[in-house]
Specification:
alpha+beta, elongated, 8% strand, Multidrug efflux transporter AcrB transmembrane fold, single chain, 10 strands, 26 helices, four-stranded antiparallel β-sheet, 765 residues
Length: 765
């Protein structure tokens, strides 16, 4: 029945081949014209992917009276003069800038934060209704603010920059778009060159790759539309993995079909009949292979971590679209081009040959136990090193691309406002009694945080711009200016003390700077800290989060606070790692069971799925062990990005079964008409070049990701992921699929097919 379906599909596609090609071209043009691009929706803010109940998100919500709702975003604007200090002309320019920024769409308020202690820089804060987790609106806001800054005339010695997370994310998004195009172009070039070597043909590589290229454009537009509609968050990992997965898996499916068409042409078939026959024979393998990948990806919907959760659907859309193209567009193109597709190789009738892999298989079937035992032992030794795996975050602070305006702005903030670092760890406390009524609470909390030994720097309400104030001095200034408004309100008006307040300009500037540390009602207070354990994105800092939280809780209780929390990159990464571990424990068993069921259906066997999945698990652990050896033992890294084991498992489980299905269905096909030993030799001889070529394409694509995507500063985690996945795929391709699995098949004999009718079939010779 399955063969009849793919036979009918093949004949329909061949008959209407020009219509099929025209529909795909029209659909691609429509998608690109009507839908947003994928790169425009990339969000590099990893906190966007945490669940609302994560402790770091709870701490951010606790700080809402200070920073506004977590659905609002803020963009610091820093102005620096090359003179000795800001003068009257600079002050007038800043007032004009404050007014102009207030008119930008979605901006809720603009306030004057502080003047630097040396008087050379000033900082404004723009608060917008744009969510920090909405990539495209955030980039649009940054673009509009940049335009507003450029439109305001200011002295030639005054430089104005946007800074902070949103500006950095916008700059990173532009970098991501460039890197995405570079990865895509480099991957296509690499695959074309490899296919030229594989096919030794001028046209076949391009025809094999055309469906993948069109699917990449179409699925990218679909996913961009989902991101624009806020159905899901799109990360940079989604972008690069979609490129590699579609180009890699699409080329795999193309190789499955093109190799079989070439085989039939060499057997003397007419090109149209060769396409129909090939689709009838490998259509089920392609569909089943895609189904295993889609099922594995959709299990990610069980994840609590949004980056995992939102990774599954986009990649599944890409694979589903690739499946449709592989079963329609590629056969149509093969039918159109026919024999000239393989020029200058002559696709004429010739005697079948088992080739190199057939010879390898012949040696295996003679001693399957030795082959299997040796392979399992070798992989087992490598797998032991996986026990030494230690997770890390994303490799350090998220930095804006070098030379960008955001990088210059962040550097200016770090230089002139060191207490207002770009990437602080925030300690937040909520007091039942307003600190304006009892400022002693501030002294107790600040002293407790310093005594805890967990922080190297602590900037807070008693030294908001680097100039210290006692609780009494702060209270006195508050009493003098509070009739004119809160610090937040006054900061939006002017940097000049209200007439009649009798407060000096210097003291008033320091008081205005408390707007970021003390809420208007005085109940919420925060401190910007540097961690003694290390930079916020390092493994040491992430590992120290439980102790930091415990210390803050103890200090808050002694100071009389009713609630407390710790927010920032290190707490967020700790929460991500914890949630990720929990997700792995949920998703891995479900993925194994789901793919096991699919294999049982496709292979009509309950036995084969057991050792096929076991082989993937062994390959996965061995690959992870190699990553530990390479990155922790040899390179001396403290840990490996925590995403790697999860991504390796999903990709090796799904893509490894692609090759399993191709090899096993061919062995089953050959075993129907000959003894199992000879069937294995012929099947491996026929599929070995396909599997190894497909593995080289996919592994090479991940190497491209490692080289191109990991080339920028701060992108070391991309390099690790690319290399780790490439090594895993090569190991799976050249050792497990083409050596160990055929050896296991020969050892089990007819039990491979139990309980189907083939279990009582031909002998074991």
């Amino acid at each position: 029945m399955v063969d009849r379906f793919f036979d009918a599909l093949g004949r329909s596609v061949v008959r209407f081949r020009w219509v099929v090609v025209a529909l795909w071209i029209a659909g691609t043009v429509a998608a690109l014209s009507l839908l947003p691009s994928l790169s425009s929706q990339v969000n590099d803010n990893n906190g966007a992917f945490l669940p609302a109940g994560a402790p770091s998100n709870l701490a951010a919500r606790l700080a809402e009276p200070l920073i506004g709702p977590t659905t609002h975003s803020s963009v610091p604007v820093v102005a620096v003069t090359s003179g000795s200090s800001l003068d009257q002309a600079d002050g007038a320019a800043l007032q004009r800038l404050l007014g102009r920024l207030s008119t930008v769409r979605s901006v809720l308020s603009v306030q004057y934060l502080a003047t630097s202690p040396d008087g050379r820089a000033a900082e404004l804060l723009v608060v917008s209704s744009v969510s920090p987790f909405d990539a495209s609106p955030g980039t649009t806001l940054v673009d509009h603010l940049d335009s507003a800054v450029r439109s305001v005339p200011h002295p030639g010695d005054l430089r104005v920059y946007l800074s902070g997370a949103l500006a950095t994310n916008a700059a990173l998004q532009q970098q991501s778009a460039r890197q995405g195009r570079q990865i895509q172009d480099a991957s296509i070039l690499f695959i074309l060159l490899l296919l030229l070597v594989i096919f030794r043909s001028a046209l076949a590589p391009f025809i094999t790759l055309i469906p993948s290229a069109l699917v990449l454009l179409v699925s990218g537009a679909f996913i961009g539309a989902l991101g624009s509609a806020r159905v899901l968050q799109v990360s940079f990992f989604t972008q690069i993995l979609l490129i590699v997965l579609i180009l890699g898996a699409g080329t795999d499916y193309g190789l499955f079909l093109v190799f079989r068409v070439r085989e039939q042409l060499f057997a003397g078939s007419h090109p149209h009949e060769a396409v129909v026959y090939a689709l009838r024979r490998v259509g089920e393998s392609i569909a089943a292979s895609a189904a295993t990948v889609i099922v594995a990806l959709l299990t990610l919907l069980l994840a609590s971590f949004g980056l995992y959760h939102d990774l599954g659907v986009p990649l599944a859309i890409g694979i589903a679209t690739m499946l449709v193209a592989g079963l329609t567009l590629l056969p149509a193109l093969l039918a159109i081009f026919g024999r000239p597709l393989f020029w200058p190789t002559r696709a004429v009738s010739r005697e079948p040959s088992v080739g190199l892999w057939g010879k390898v298989a012949a040696s295996m079937v003679r001693k399957p136990l030795v082959t299997l035992a040796s392979g399992v032992a070798g992989l087992g030794v490598l797998a032991l090193f996986a026990l030494g795996f230690s997770p890390s975050g994303f490799g350090g602070d998220v930095a804006a691309p070098s030379g960008s305006g955001a990088a210059k702005g962040n550097a200016a903030v770090a230089s002139f406002f060191p207490e207002s670092t770009f990437n602080p760890t925030s300690v937040v406390m909520r007091f039942p009694v307003s600190v304006w009524a009892d400022p002693g609470q501030l002294a107790a909390a600040s002293a407790g945080l310093r005594r805890s030994g967990r922080f190297t720097t602590i900037a807070g309400p008693l030294d908001p711009n680097g100039i210290a104030m006692s609780p009494g001095e702060l209270a006195a200034v508050y009493r003098a200016v509070s009739p004119y408004g809160s610090a937040q309100d006054l900061a939006r008006m002017s940097s000049v003390p209200p007439a009649g307040s009798q407060v000096s300009a210097a003291v008033y500037g320091t008081y205005l700077a408390t707007a970021r540390y003390i809420s208007a009602d005085g109940h919420t207070v925060q401190w910007a800290t540097g961690l003694r354990a290390g930079d916020a994105g390092t493994t040491a800092a992430i590992d120290a989060v439980p102790r930091i939280r415990a210390a803050v809780t103890a200090v808050a209780q002694r100071a009389g606070a009713s609630a407390s929390g710790v927010a920032g990159e290190a707490p967020a990464f700790y929460d991500i790692s914890s949630i990720s571990d929990n997700d792995v424990s949920k998703i891995v068993p479900v993925a194994i069971i789901a793919i096991g069921v699919l294999l049982a259906i496709v292979l009509r066997s309950l036995v084969a799925p057991l050792y096929l999945i076991s082989s993937v698990l062994l390959s996965y652990l061995a690959s992870l062990g190699i990553a530990v050896i390479a990155f922790m033992k040899v390179s001396g890294q403290a840990g490996i990005i925590f995403l790697l084991p999860f991504l390796m498992f999903i990709f090796l489980l799904a893509l490894g079964e692609d090759y399993n299905i191709l090899v096993m269905t061919r062995i089953r096909e050959e075993a129907r008409r000959d003894a199992l030993g000879r069937a294995v030799v012929r099947a491996v001889g026929a599929t070995g070049p396909t599997v190894t070529s497909a593995g080289l394409v996919l592994a090479g694509s991940f190497v491209v990701v490692a080289v191109v995507g990991g080339s920028g500063a701060g992108n070391g985690e991309i390099r690790v992921i690319g290399v780790g996945l490439a090594v895993g795929i090569l190991l799976d391709t050249f050792v497990v699929r083409t050596v160990l699995v055929p050896a296991a098949v020969k050892m089990l004999g007819r039990w491979n097919w139990w309980p189907s009718a083939m279990a009582g079939g031909r002998g074991q010779g």
